[in-house]
Amino acid sequence: MSNPKDAFQELVRIFSSRDNKVLEIEIIPPSLGATFLQDGCSLGITKKALVQAFTVARQLFFDRLMPMSEDDLQATLPASAQSRDTDSGITEIMILFDCEHLTACNWRKRRLRAAMAHCPGIPNQTSAATEVLEAELTLMSSYQCSPLHRHTKSPTLWHHRLWVVVHLLQRRHWSAEDLLRLQRTELDIVLRAGELHPKNYYAFNYMRQLDILLAATVEKTTKPSTWETCSPSVVGQVVDWCLANPRDISGWSFGLYMLSNALEQHSRVNALERVVKFALNVGWEGESLWTFVDQASRQFRLESVIEDIMLLHCDQETRTRDFQPVQDSRQNKSWQTWLARAKVYWVENQARDT
């Protein structure tokens, strides 16, 4: 498929037929002998075909979409499905090619505003505008959860996603259970993006902003207890991810943020115990993990928890020789202090094995 218009039409067809499902998009090498490869929600496209589709989409965007006024956008809403799909597909292709194309993202915001003005929200009902916003979220997920070069860490796309969620929250009443499901869904998206692009500051910063937004929203609900009860499970999910990606400082920083929002101290204790035991058992010396241990122990006054775990792993002789009570203040400690203590355990354990 060497014709740019054919490449454009094929991508429009794929995007318009996804039925709000999340696509997994990947750039494939031309050596495979195919321009497009699709298996269910998995899509492969060559770089050449994407460039060809982008050139057509960009021309149509500036010729047809950019001159549209707000009234023109309103008038397109009752248009045929094929016309709407083509208009939407133009910017979808542009963003697939260039995730920082702010003009294309802003046009999509204008289109969403027109849909919200055309279909005002009805309490306790799902309006057409709500469906459009939810479809926009699945589109963003297709970009941000795909093995693409820049999309998983795009500040433009994460800001656009937050904008969509803000307006989605305003469209209808949300129970605490609904908000919890939304939080977990978005957390899954963020953690997936963090796996695809390590040290993904923009993804975790989005989750911080969303957490603040959801916490403010849940205060207006009648069952805040549901949100509070399920908080430890969310913290546990974040700690699980951090232990699976122990070099990721952005993940540990977000984990520290989640612990600061935990309502019960035992949630923090359990999380810190898991991290310290993991590090001791696998011999982990990475700075990111031990920085988390140090900052968590300082912030939540849990130095004694770490001391107890390390003492528990050593014999009596080592406890007496190497783990004397520390007289210096907490300010003089650092992550290297805890790492040095861990090394004592590793050396002793190795000597015992030999």
From TrEMBL:
<keyword id="KW-0808">Transferase</keyword>
<comment type="similarity">
    <text>Belongs to the protein prenyltransferase subunit alpha family.</text>
</comment>
<keyword id="KW-0677">Repeat</keyword>
<keyword id="KW-0637">Prenyltransferase</keyword>
<dbReference type="InterPro" id="IPR002088">
    <property type="entry name" value="Prenyl_trans_a"/>
</dbReference>
<dbReference type="GO" id="GO:0005737">
    <property type="term" value="C:cytoplasm"/>
</dbReference>
<dbReference type="Pfam" id="PF01239">
    <property type="entry name" value="PPTA"/>
</dbReference>
<protein>
    <submittedName>
        <fullName>Protein prenyltransferase</fullName>
    </submittedName>
</protein>
<dbReference type="GO" id="GO:0008318">
    <property type="term" value="F:protein prenyltransferase activity"/>
</dbReference>
